[in-house]
Amino acid sequence: MQTTYRYPVGTNGKPWGEPERKAWLEQTAIKREYQEEVVPKIKALGDRFDIEQYGALSYDEARFPLFCLKSKNWDSNKPTVLITGGVHGYETSGVHGAIKFMDTMAEHYQEHFNVVAAPCVSPWGYETINRWNPNAVDPNRSFYQDSPSEESASLMKLVATLDNVLVHFDLHETTDTDETEFRPALAARNGIEYVPCSIPDGFYTVGDSENPQPEFQAAIIESVANVTHIAPADEKGNLIDSPMVQHGVIHYPMVKLGLCGGVTSCTYGTTTEVYPDSPKVTDEECNDAQVAAVKGGLDYVIRHL
């Protein structure tokens, strides 16, 4: 179904140029502060993990340093687990769920793995509660050579320093604002018609269509089901217009689409999608769902090492 929806920036059917991107940026606003809500939580873990600054965003390098947490006593003989959050900065539980996992569970898994977490890949997006960066570029479609996204390029440089990444969890959310703001903005930016899509009611994962690992995905779904409800398919058997290939799971070609889920050559990878707008969940339960996803996935991998 098409719509005559008119996004407030740009002209219907005409891709944005620099004036439209500037107009879009001017209507964004700071709604919360990375240095108050995220950085102190990362630094509080400095006695238990190594904190590494792997970059800073040129929009304001002092305001937006990029941090990761890494296992102390790094052992090159162990496989590595990578956890990324906040690639889309507005997806809050991705950020705080990554930090909560490091705080509450990461040390338990260091017997088997080196663990590294980049909890907030897109701090400008976190502050403005936005999917894009200030240049109207989506970091989670920009993981490729000569990336137009500083956020993506910085994370790729970090990943290039990591040995033997066996498992990657990229923590995301699907929100009601995906449909009320971000997908309409995308259509306007690209000069195409906005076609509405339904938002799944519950948690799901996105596996790599080139390396789906269905049993790994199932273990994540089973673990998260103890915390929050799993999204059912719509009347077409889809989640966000993609076929549900198993309970709570869809597939995307990660590398082809430039997604963060394709940033490593890991054996086991997943993109989690929490639904924070459900009246059935609290913010903390959303964080707990992200933790449960990582736990369920790692427990599965340990059983199959």
Automatic annotation (TrEMBL):
Superkingdom in the source lineage: Bacteria
UniProt keyword Metal-binding, yes or no: yes
Family designation: Belongs to the peptidase M14 family.
This protein's UniProt keywords: Hydrolase, Metal-binding, Zinc
MF terms in GO: hydrolase activity, acting on ester bonds; metallocarboxypeptidase activity; zinc ion binding
Cofactor(s) listed in the protein's UniProt record: Zn(2+)
InterPro entries (alphabetical): AstE_AspA_cat, Peptidase_M14
Domain Peptidase M14, chain residue ranges per copy: 30-305
Pfam families xrefs: AstE_AspA_cat (PF24827)
Protein name: Peptidase
